[in-house]
């Protein structure tokens, strides 16, 4: 038994050394071919997956930092064209764009290879952030950190997923390793922004290669709930919010409902908890007759209010809100238009084929 374990350890070590050697060969071959275009910034890889690794370079001509992805087999797995098309076509500040694809020949692999050159996002994946969460879970400021991420980052993530779905495509592999957390120096909307990467990874797995975009969008919903559960299960307000996500059916509903809930929590954290404060928030909901099912959101607010002993003030606000919405001039149509925007997008997509 001991001999088998030793042999297994030697085999694993040999495979790791061979992979390390292959990576170094590929990197040097790429840099030699494009020595006038890209300069290696450091020897540390930005990341590594099952199929590829990424390192940091300087684009000499444009004087910007770029992330260069090389594939262990020289070329990417099946499905990469989808990811490259998405990240090259759709312009959004929460989707890491692909700048170009550079071909080169590898003498070591004896095949034509490609390198994918993408925008460098100086953030951390939520997989890495979750490890930090584990390290500070017993610290007194842990809930404050979860508040910051939950009230800014999650809203940001829902916004970019909603954008993708409104354009007719899903991410398909929405796990914590493919979602980057990026802190804004001068935040316009969200101090902690979510950046999506690696749309093509979802197409590598045999069970997802043939999935339609509709199926990928449906997958995103389940994967988002899993991500939220894994990252925020220790958050003070986790239980009522995950229940709300289970009650709704699509990302547009998640986005709208969560924006209201997160604003409600923000009011609580800033000690703005009067019935008047709450009713002003409730009047930003779309009118019930416009198709958005408000009760799930209200139920979530009630559960949160119960946690912070604010049930009476919220109920007073709800009663006032019910009186207000009886008059059509009292409700805000802005969010309703935003909520219905996905349907409008579908109309325009069919109109312009």
Automatic annotation (TrEMBL):
Highest taxon listed in the record's lineage: Bacteria
Binding site for ATP: 69
InterPro entries with a match to the protein in the record: Kinase-like_dom_sf, Prot_kinase_dom, Protein_kinase_ATP_BS
One GO molecular-function entry: ATP binding
Span of the signal peptide: none
Spans through the membrane: none
Keywords: ATP-binding, Kinase, Nucleotide-binding, Transferase
ATP-binding among keywords: yes
Nucleus in keyword set: no
Span of domain Protein kinase: 40-353
Name of the molecule in the record: Protein kinase domain-containing protein
Lineage: Bacteria, Pseudomonadati, Bacteroidota, Flavobacteriia, Flavobacteriales
């Amino acid at each position: 038994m001991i001999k088998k374990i030793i042999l297994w350890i030697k085999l694993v070590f040999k495979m790791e050394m061979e992979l390390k050697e292959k990576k170094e060969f590929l990197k040097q071959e790429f840099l030699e071919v494009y020595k006038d275009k890209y300069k290696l910034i450091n020897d540390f890889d930005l990341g590594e997956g099952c199929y590829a690794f990424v390192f940091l370079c300087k684009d000499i001509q444009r004087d910007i930092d770029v992330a260069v992805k090389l594939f262990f087999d020289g070329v990417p797995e099946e499905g990469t064209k989808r990811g490259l098309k998405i990240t090259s076509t759709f312009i959004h500040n929460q989707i890491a764009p692909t700048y170009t694809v550079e071909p080169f020949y590898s003498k070591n692999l004896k095949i034509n290879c490609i390198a994918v050159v993408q925008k460098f996002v100086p953030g951390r994946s939520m997989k890495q952030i979750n490890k930090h969460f584990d390290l500070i879970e017993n610290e007194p400021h842990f809930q404050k950190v979860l508040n910051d991420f939950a009230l800014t980052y999650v809203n940001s993530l829902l916004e970019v997923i909603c954008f993708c779905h409104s354009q007719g495509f899903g991410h398909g592999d929405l796990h914590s390793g493919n979602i980057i957390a990026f802190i804004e120096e001068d935040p316009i909307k969200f101090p902690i922004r979510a950046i999506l990467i690696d749309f093509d990874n979802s197409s590598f797995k045999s069970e997802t290669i043939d999935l339609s975009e509709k199926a990928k969008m449906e997958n995103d919903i389940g994967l988002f709930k899993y991500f939220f559960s894994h990252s925020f299960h220790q958050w003070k307000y986790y239980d009522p919010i995950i229940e709300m996500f289970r009650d709704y059916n699509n990302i547009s509903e998640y986005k709208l409902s969560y924006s209201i809930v997160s604003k409600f929590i923000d009011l609580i954290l800033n000690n703005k908890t009067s019935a008047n404060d709450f009713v002003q928030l409730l009047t930003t909901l779309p009118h019930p007759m416009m198709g958005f099912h408000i009760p799930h959101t209200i139920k979530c607010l009630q559960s949160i209010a119960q946690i912070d002993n604010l049930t009476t003030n919220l109920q007073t606000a709800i009663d006032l809100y019910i009186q207000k919405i009886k008059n059509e001039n009292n409700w805000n149509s802005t969010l309703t238009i935003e909520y219905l925007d996905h349907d409008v997008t579908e109309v325009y997509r069919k109109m312009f084929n």
